[in-house]
Amino acid sequence: MERLEPVDLVDLKENIRGLGTPFEMTYTLQTEDALQECPVSTGQSLSRVRPLSTLMSNLPGMAYRCRNDQSWTMEAVSEDCYQLTGYSPFELIGNREICYAQLIHPDDREQVWNAIQAAVQEYRPFQLVYRIITAAGEEKLVWEQGCGVFSQSGELLALEGLIMISIPNRDLDPRPANTLHPFANTSIDVSERQRAEEEIKLLQILTQAISAAPDFHTALSVALRQVCETTGWNFGEAWIPSSDGTVLECTPAWYSSTLELQVESLQALEVERLMKGLNQLQPTNLPSELPLTLSEFRRQSEMLKFSPGIGLPGRVWLSKQPEWIPDASIEPPPFFIRTQFARNCGLKAGFAVPILSKDRVVAILTFFLFESRPKDKRLVELVSAVAAHLGTVMQQKQAEAALRESQRRLASLIDSLPGIVFSCGNDPAWSMTYISEGCFKLTGYHSEELIGDRAVSYDSITHPEDLPKVLEAIATGITLLKPYVVEYRILTKSGVEKWVWEKGAAVCDNTGKVLGLEGFITDITERKRTEEALQQAEAKYRSIFENAIEGIFQTTPDGQYISANPALARIYGYESPTELMARLTDIKQQLYVDPNRRAEFTRLLQEHDAVSEFESAVSRQDGSIIWISENARAVRDCEGKLLYYEGTVEDITERKRAKEHLRERAFYDILTGLPNRALFMERLSQAVERAKQCQDFQFALLFVDLDGFKKVNDSLGHLVGDKLLVALAERLLRCVARRLETCVRAEDIVARLGGDEFTLLLEAIDDLSHATSIAERINRELIPPFYLDGHEVFTAASIGIVLSSGYDRPEDLLRDADTALYRAKALGKGRYEVFDQTMHSSAR
Predict the structure, then answer these.
(1) CA–CA dist 94, 76 (Å, integer)
(2) How far is CA 81 from CA 47, 92, 104, 208, in A?
(3) Does the predicted model carry a pTM greater than 0.70?
(4) What is the DSSP letter of 675?
C-alpha cells in the first residue's frame, strides 16, 4: 500500500493536535483524519459535536477520544458505540459503568497495549485487529485505527480514532493492520463508500481552506467554490443580514460553473446555423428562448433584499433550518421570488442552508443546479456540516480579532498613559522586569536602561530622603495583602526633581509566595505645586476672612450657621464666631425683626442663586435693632443640588438713618412734618394717571388757607418778636396740621405747600358730597380757639374744592382748586367753594 509523508494536524488556533501519516484514501482512515480536524471537549459525546455529527451517524463503527491509561478511559465516544459494544456513551465515558479495557478480550489486552504504546512513542498512527466482549457476552472481532494527540511541547494528551467490526476471516492476533485489506469481503456498498470518502475529503479540504481564510467573506467564497466543484452544482451564492439586521443582502462571495460558457458557445453556434440557412434544424440542447448567463442571474440577485420569511434565503433565515426546492423554475413567485430569473438562465434545483454562530444566523448559503433533482439528504447534511464549521470558524476568527484588538488597545492604552506601568521581581531592590514606554517622558531614561538594573536601578533615582518611606509602604501593603499607595520624589536623568504617585500590589503564586510587584507610577509634580499654591491661597483667604470689616458667613438652607468670621460676630453683638454659631441657631426667628424677610431672602436665592444689597432690620444679642445689607449666593454641587448659602453682611444702620433724613428733607415740611409740595405733587400725578386708566376712579383736591393768619402774625410786633414769631408760627402750624390730620382717612394725604397753605388729596371718593363733608368737618374743628403762650387765638379756613373729572395734568387741578379757594375768601371766609368753569370767567 502506498504511504504518504507525515503531516501535522492542527486545530483552529493553529496548535499542533497530533502527528499522523495518511494512508490510501480508505473510508476508515479518512474518517479518523476528519475526527482529528474537529477536537471535542472532555466528557462530551462525539454525536453532540458539530460539524461531523451528521457524518458520524453514517459510520459503521465507534469514533472515540480516550486517555492513554490502562483503562483506556473514554473522554468522548460516538453514539454507534452501543451497536458495537452494547454499552451507551454515558456508560463508557469516564468509566461510569465499565472501562473499555474490560471489553477487550483478556488474551488480547497486553498485545493491544504494547502495540499502541509503540505507535505513540514513534509519533505514528496505529491500526489493530483484536477481540472484544460485548455487554451481551458476544465475542466480536474489531478493527481499530487511531493516533496520539500531542501538545506543542510533544506531550501526549489523548488518543483519537475509530473502532469498527472487522472482516470475519481475519487473524485474531493484534498487529498492525496495514498488512490487511480492511474492506476485503466487507458488506459495505462500494459506491456508498466512495461517496463517503468524497464527503470526508471535501470536509477535510474545506476545514483547512476555511481555517486559513483571512476573513469571513473569503471563507464563504472558498466554501461555495469547493461545494459546487465537488458536488457538481452549478451556482452558489451567500446572503448575510444587513447592518441593521432587518433584511438579507447578497455578499460579494459567489460561484458559477463553466457551464455558462458552454451555453454561450451553443448560442453562438445557433447564430451560425441560422446564417447558413440551417435554421430548420432545431437544436435539441437549447431552449426556445436564449437563456441569461449565470453572471446576469448574479447581477439580478445583487439588487434583491430578503426580509425574514420571504423567498428561499428569507425562509431559511427565519427557520434556521435547510430547505430544498426540486425545481425553482416552476415555483410561483411568492414562494420563489427569482422564478423568472432562474427559468431564463436554466437553473432548476436549489437548496439553502444557514450558517449559525451562537444560535444566530450570520449567513445563508444557496446553491442551484441546471436540472431538477429531488431532495438529497446526505448532500444537505454535508453542506450543513460545512456551514456549521463556517459558523465555528467565524466565531473563532471574531474571537481572535477581538483578542488582537483588545491586546492592541491595551498596549496602546498602557503606552499612552501619563506614567509608568511596571512589574518588578521579588529581590531586595525590587528590580524592574517590565516598564512601559511612559518611562522616558517621566524619568528621562529609556525602559531598557531601568529593566533589570542594566544601567541604573529605579531605587537609585528615588530621592534618598523618600526611599525608606517607599519601601515601608511596599512592606506594609504586602503584610496586609492590600495595594499600597505612596507619594515621593525622584531625580530624572537630567537632574530635575519630580513628585510621583505610585500604586501597586504584590503578585503571589497559589501558595501565597510573593513573586513580585505590579503597579503604576505617574507624575504629580503639577498637583503638588497646585496644592502648595492652594495652601498659600487658603492662608491668604483665612487672613482676609479673619480680618475683614464685613461679616462673612456660610449657612445651611434651613437657617443654621456653618461658619462665621469675627466681624459678623461683632455686628450681631457676640463675643466670638463660636458663641454666635452656638446661640444663634434659628436665623429666621432669632435674627430678623420681620421673619418674612428671611423667607424672601431664601426665595430669591432659590430662584436666582444670588441676592445683592438685601436690606433687613435685625436684632442684636442685646435686643437693639440695626439695619444690615446682605450679598449672598447659593452654592450647589455638580448635579445642581443646593449645599449651602454664603455671603457678606454690612451694618448700614447709620447709612439708613442718613438716607431717611435726606428723604424727610426732600419730601417733608421741616416745620410741620407733613409731606411737602414735591411729595404732594408726586401723589397727585399718580392719582391723575390712575383716573385716566380707570373710568370708575375719582378723587378730589382740597386747597386750604387759614383766614387772618397775617393779622395774628402782625399783632405780635415785627420789631421785638422775630424769634417769638418763629416759635409761635411753629406751634400754630403744628396744631393746625394735627387738627387737619384728624379729619381725613388713612389713605388720604395732607400736605403743606408753604406759608399758611395746605392741600388735601381725597382718593377713591364716590361723589362730590364726600369732599364737601370733609371741608365742613375742617371748619368745625377750627371753631374752638388755640391757646398759645397765654394768647387765645381764633382762626378759620377758606377751602377750594375741585373734582378729578376731565383733568390731564396735576398743575391744572391745583390751579383750579386755588381759584375756588379765593372765591371762598371773597364770599366771606370760613367756608368752601367747589370749582366750576364760570370761576375762570369771573377771574378774568
Answers:
(1) 9
(2) 10, 9, 14, 28
(3) no
(4) B
